[in-house]
Write a structure and sequence with these properties.
18% strand; 10 strands; alpha/beta; two-stranded antiparallel sheet; six-stranded mixed beta sheet
């Protein structure tokens, strides 16, 4: 059937209105995280009028590594180990530097599909990243397993407690470097978590961030709990050429960044009661490094 002229005019008005809203929403938060790209906003009927449209962010690197991390580390080694000695019959996870939520929703939903009970706590210092996490959780109907994203200041400032929205400028935590965290924010979670994860943060944050990470894991992990750190590392001061080139590139952007010596990370962890367990070689010359709380 042919459209009447009035129908065509009405449709044109609707489309015009949509694109105006779309353009306004997309430009309202300039690219604060260069590794993220903005996806289509969630449908209007999923958002409250007060919060406007919550845009989901995307991380291509997280999309690439989520499968290998789950298959080679979490699903095959970490989760089975934790379930062997778990009185709660539930795995409690704190995900530091959670980013836009790709890992949060994928790891939790895959664990649920594998028959596990999960209580996932994503944490990120950046407000827009937290909004993206919560939007993904809502979209995927995972609110029963994934808690609202938090911005706790855990341990010393740095990548685990930086200023909202400034990670793209290379000054994450610069104004708070060395400042202790707010104990009240997380005191009820001391000795609470079975697993703490930190993926692709250590090399793109000041060294204070690694100190803060280990302080946080040392306080919030239960005895026998596991810390997983994923990313590129040097061993014995060296690495494959691609990681050495990456190290130089990072330092050219910010002198406080860089591919860390694994031995230095292990030493910081040891001071917080975390014993190095093992590392697993991953695709793209990354390592999954595992620590256990004594």
């Amino acid at each position: 059937a042919r459209w009447r002229r009035g129908d065509a005019i009405q449709m044109a008005k609707l489309l015009s209105s949509f694109f105006i809203v779309q353009a306004t929403t997309t430009s309202s938060a300039a690219a604060f995280l260069p590794k993220f790209r903005r996806l289509t906003p969630l449908p209007f009927n999923r958002m409250s009028s007060s919060s406007q449209i919550a845009a989901i962010l995307e991380s291509p690197s997280a999309e690439r590594n989520k499968g290998p991390i789950y298959d080679m580390v979490l699903g095959s080694k970490v989760f089975p180990t934790l379930m062997e000695n778990n009185d709660n019959n539930k795995i409690r996870v704190l995900e530091l530097a959670a980013g836009c939520g790709v890992h949060s929703t994928y790891f939790a939903s895959t664990a649920l599909a594998d028959g596990m009970s999960i209580e996932w706590h994503p944490s990120d210092p950046d407000l827009e990243a937290r909004l993206s996490i919560d939007a993904r959780v809502e979209r995927d109907n995972l609110a029963n397993s994934i808690r609202p994203a938090n911005g706790w200041i855990l341990g010393k400032a740095g990548g685990t407690a930086c200023n909202d929205g400034h990670r793209d400028k290379g000054d994450a935590g610069a104004n708070n470097s060395g400042v202790g965290g707010i104990e009240a924010d997380y005191s009820q979670y001391h000795n609470y978590f079975d697993l703490v994860t930190c993926i692709n943060m250590i090399h793109i944050a000041p060294w204070e961030a690694t100190i803060g990470l280990m302080e946080c894991a040392g306080k919030t992990l239960r005895k026998g709990g596991i810390l997983l750190c994923y990313g590129p590392y040097k061993i014995g001061g060296t690495a494959v050429d691609s990681n050495l080139n990456f190290d130089r590139s990072l330092k050219s952007r910010d002198s406080r960044w860089g591919v860390r010596n694994l031995e230095d990370v292990i030493e910081v962890a040891k001071k917080e009661g975390l014993t190095f367990d093992s590392y697993i070689e991953m695709p793209a010359n990354n390592l999954s490094v595992l620590f256990r709380k004594d």
